[in-house]
Amino acid sequence: MSDESNPPLVPPAVQPPRKRRIFGIGSIILGVPLMLWLVTALIFARSLKYPAFLYEGNGQDVFGEHVPRLTRGSLTDVRTATGLEPQRFDAGIVQEDGFRARQVPVIGWFFAGSRREAIVLLSAAGGTELQIIPYVKFLHAAGYNVVACYSANNPKYGINWGLLKRKFAIATAHRLHDDGFDTVAAIGISEGGAGVLLAQSEEPVFKAIIVDSAFASLPDTLLRSPTLARLHPAFARTVLWEARWWFGKSLYSVLPAESAGAMGDCPLLIIQNSGDPLTPVSDGEAIRKAATGSAELWIAPSKGHGDAIFQAPKEYAAHVIAFLDKVFGPPPAVAQAEPSPTPAALPSVGKHKPRARSKMRHRPTATNDAAASP
Question: Which of 18, 53, 183, 218 could be disulfide-bonded to 117 (CB atoms 3.0-4.6 Å)?
Answer without folding.
Answer: 183
